[in-house]
Amino acid sequence: MIIVRDLAIEAGARPLISEASFSIHGGDKIGLVGPNGAGKTTLLRTLAGELEQAEGAIRRSGVVGYLSQEAAITELIDDQVNALERVLTARDIGTLERRMEKVRIKMEAADGEERDRLIARFSRLDDEFTARGGYVAKAEAKRFAASVGIKGEDLFQRVATMSGGQRRRVELARVLFAETDVLILDEPTNHLDLDAKAWLMEFLDDYVGGLLVVSHDLPLLDKSITSVLALDDHHLEPYRGNYSFYVEEKDRRREQRRRERKHQDEKIARLEEGIRRFKGTTEKMAKRARSWETRVEKLKVKRVDVGGKARKIAVRFPQPEPSGRTPLKASGLAKAFDHNVVFVDVDVDVDRGERMIIMGLNGAGKTTLLRILAGVEIADMGDVAIGHKATLGYYAQEHEQIKAGKTVLDHMREVSQIPDRDLRTILGHFLLADKIDQDAGTLSGGEKTKLALAQLVVQRDNVLLLDEPTNNLDPQAKKALLGALRQYTGTLLLVSHDTEFVESLQPDRMIVMPDGETGFFDESMLELIALA
After folding, report:
1. Which residues, at least 6 apart from 114, have a Cβ–Cβ distance to it below 8 Å?
2. Which residue, among 358, 368, 447, 420, has the nearest Cα to 41 in the 3D structure?
3. In degrees rounded to 5, what are phi and psi of residue 336?
4. Residue 174 contacts residue 86 (beta carbons within 8 Å)
5. Angstrom distance (rounded) from CA 347 to CA 89
6. Which CATH class is domain 1-63+180-307?
7. 20, 128, 226, 400: most buried by Cβ count inside 10 Å?
């Protein structure tokens, strides 16, 4: 259970949330909604205990499980930990098994009394592991991992070598595998395929603890929640019902407030007209006018706040200088992490102005291929050639280019020499004008996405490599990005799980990983996008 009273949260000196009171009990399934940058992720981190509130009280009881929006795992102490061991750490079993494995390795190299001592130690650890239900829990952990798309050899791959999407699925399995009383989930469907999403919805339906979830996946919000907390303009407003009810009720409440405000304004206008008419007349009427002034001031204080219209993001990629006919080409690419061979002998050949989508199931190497093409990762075999007058802009799904300790404006200065005035204008188009001096590391996932896209805009590259660019974006921002890419005349290579986005973008060709097969894209391929 979590009980929140009079909560205030700030980002630096900027208020995010004020006077918020609510509770999360067993059986509550709450969707937290609001525009990018409103403070949803900061609120979740505060509830999870990762950040301190400015004011108010948060009371927690039981075990709270928190899934961060970020793919990075900052608390990963041992870079040798594999995916299964990471999931098991949710119940402190993974650490114990890791100790057993280290002792076993030492046993193989030891002899004599040292070997006997290690055998006895391994036996004690094994007894403890069995007593704590380790072997049963291990099988259960494998089921959780497989349900979110981590199975087979992936279970034994080191987490440190996994892609951002794989790491995030490992963390989701870990949080769900933990025996929690409250779940706080930030964009849990990012990087999940269709089957994994269906499993997650079923899991959340059956979950008996309290749930607070942020998600731009509307079917999840509709199916798995029973109430909504709407965060906007520093305040939380509760709604009973699913997301569809919230959308309708939000409009109804706004219309009701608009009518109340109109009635109040009309009443104030009538009183002010009377004040102007009688204030300079007889003493009796002037006295009445002064009483009306007091009444007007009280009415103005009590006026209903209708709320302003939501600001709209404006994305436009400047038309770049044309590249040569073949801006990007690669041949014989191969990549492996430890004993996990991701792909072998993959060729890429992109024509100027072409839109190519990189497809494949989870773990097929889509992100790895894009990173190699962008020059961020080095292939074990093969070559990448940048064509005549081609310049590459890379958007990383993990926001690797967004560094903590540097302001939003400094990030823009790093990639462009245009005047600060113009950089501020562009940031304003991305709704980041009020965050120019903020540490970019403290931005929400959606705001980091917008900043990374703003960097691409000012770079004016003629080849864009985009890895899951719609993750963490609200529907309005996603629509703006789609419009900008449809107008872009340069070359585009895209990795995306977003079926609706891909369908609207209408790619020309595809490359299917891990085999690297190429072909023309058509609507029949959308099923694979959904499965991936």
Report:
1. none
2. 447
3. -140, 150
4. yes
5. 39
6. alpha beta
7. 20
| Burial label, 157 (beta-carbon count in 10 A; 0-12, 13-18, 19+) | buried
Query: In this predicted model, which residue has the larger pLDDT, 339 or 33?
Result: 33
- Reduced to 3 states (helix: H, G, I; strand: E, B; else coil), residue 281 is coil
**In the numeric block, which tokens belong to residue 447?**
């705001």
Report yes or no: 497 and 191 within 8 Å, Cβ to Cβ. yes
- In this predicted model, what pLDDT tens digit does every residue of 65-91 receive, in sequence order? 999 887 666 555 567 788 988 898 887
Q: Are 333 and 487 in contact (CB under 8 A)?
A: no
Give pLDDT, residue 491: 95
Q: How far is the C-alpha of 483 from the C-alpha of 116, rounded, in Å?
A: 69
pTM above 0.90, yes or no: no
pLDDT of residue 472: 79
* Residue 52: both structure tokens together: 């301190």
Contact, 469 vs 357, CB < 8 A? no
Q: How far apart are CA 213 and CA 184, in angstroms?
A: 6
**476-494, pLDDT tens digit by residue?**
888 888 888 988 999 999 9
What is each CA distance from 517 to 178, 346, 359, in whole angstroms? Answer: 40, 8, 10
Question: What CATH code is assigned to 328-531?
Answer: 3.40.50.300
Domain extents in the chain:
1-63+180-307, 83-167, 328-531
pLDDT tens per residue across span 199-213 = 999 999 999 999 999
Rounded to the nearest 10°, the torsion over CA 86, 87, 89, 95 is: -50
Q: Do domains 1-63+180-307 and 328-531 have the same CATH topology?
A: yes
Distance separating alpha carbons of residues 425 and 434, to the nearest angstrom: 11
